[in-house]
Write a structure and sequence with these properties.
336 residues; Rossmann fold; nine-stranded mixed beta sheet; three-stranded mixed beta sheet; 16 strands; 38% helix
């Protein structure tokens, strides 16, 4: 990553992704001029300030719902990584307007301010729940993607805007893995929604790989998806129990929570039809037509249907494979 002499802004920078991105930049000794962290959490900012102790890393208290804040924070910034969001499905189900204010309107503020201040590139982070959304969180993130991609179509816009989409990150806020580990450590029954539910799994480093790939290769309006393994909730909790050498730990089936899906989708069948496939990624190119469709009339051609890229894919991780993946997570290694 060539950040030498550049000013970087990590929006929602005190979250799991922001911490990992900052740690990676510092540990790899990547040169930069200044990194700015924007969030509403002063406690986490204090903790990060103590950990990194770097005068070129600056922390800003602010809210992306406030356009005045986003106008100020994006001045003299070269690159923006936008990770701020309300992410928990049940919370957004009870407070959907809060999800709208942060995930949609907040993103709109960040993008408008970035464009006005001539930021070179913005990478927006999205989620598998934005595909075929059935809950408020997924709907708001789907609209976040639409807002981002619509801004990329503006001809007068010199800011490159890309979107990345990935599934559940092991150990992040909202991940089921910390819940299961804490219940095991406290000798409580492990609460399971549905044994047959499937989820994509990836580490924070996997998420960073996707974002860095989009940053390095992304063109305006492109959406990037990283191919990810998936497994059932039953295999996941059995794998964690095995790692803790637990054989007969009690479980409790609590049923699907508000707004949850049985299976997640990273790429819809419609998107897959239009995407380019590489070894580790899918890339969806933007539709750059305007609304004067008469200019674009042409003879249709027959296309083959393509399956959506879903977590209940044909090949699911078994216990051994799931344990191998879990061991790659810094959070899990620390807890074990």
């Amino acid at each position: 990553m060539n950040f030498e002499g550049k000013n970087i802004l990590i929006v929602g920078g005190t979250g799991s992704f922001g911490n990992q991105l900052l740690k990676k930049i510092v540990s790899k000794k990547i040169k930069f001029n200044q990194i700015n962290i924007l969030s509403r959490d002063e406690k986490k900012q204090y903790e990060m300030r103590e950990i990194f102790n770097n005068s070129n890393i600056r922390f800003h208290i602010g809210d992306i719902r406030d356009k005045e804040c986003t106008d100020v924070i994006t001045k003299n910034i070269d690159y923006v990584f936008h990770a701020a969001a309300l992410k928990q499905v049940p919370s957004c189900e009870f407070y959907p307007m809060e999800a709208i204010k942060t995930n949609i309107l907040g993103t709109n503020n960040i993008l408008n301010s970035s464009i006005e201040n001539k930021v070179k590139k913005v990478i927006c982070l999205s989620t598998d729940k934005a595909v075929y959304p059935v809950n408020a969180m997924g709907i708001s993130k789907a609209m976040m993607e639409k807002v981002a991609l619509s801004k990329s179509l503006l001809n007068q816009n010199s800011t490159i805007i890309c979107v990345t989409r990935y599934g559940n990150v092991i150990g992040s806020r909202g991940s089921v893995v910390p819940l299961i580990i804490n219940q095991i450590k406290q000798n409580k029954a492990v609460t399971i929604t549905n044994k047959d539910m499937t989820r994509f799994l990836m580490t924070l480093d996997d998420a960073l790989d996707l974002v860095f790939y989009a940053f390095k290769n992304g063109k305006n309006g492109q959406l990037f998806v990283k191919k990810s393994p998936s497994t059932t909730i039953e295999i996941l909790y059995k794998s964690i129990l095995h790692m803790f050498s637990k054989k007969n730990h009690p479980i409790k089936i609590i049923g699907i929570r508000h707004g949850e899906k049985m299976h997640e989708t990273l790429l819809s069948s419609e998107e897959k039809l239009l995407s380019s496939e590489m070894k580790d990624y899918f890339v969806i190119n933007p539709d750059i037509r305007d609304m004067n469709y008469s200019k674009f009339f042409k003879n249709g051609k027959k296309v083959k249907n393509r399956e959506k890229y879903s977590s209940n894919q044909k090949k699911l991780l078994n216990i051994k494979e799931t344990i191998s993946l879990l061991k790659k997570s810094e959070y899990v290694k620390k807890e074990i």
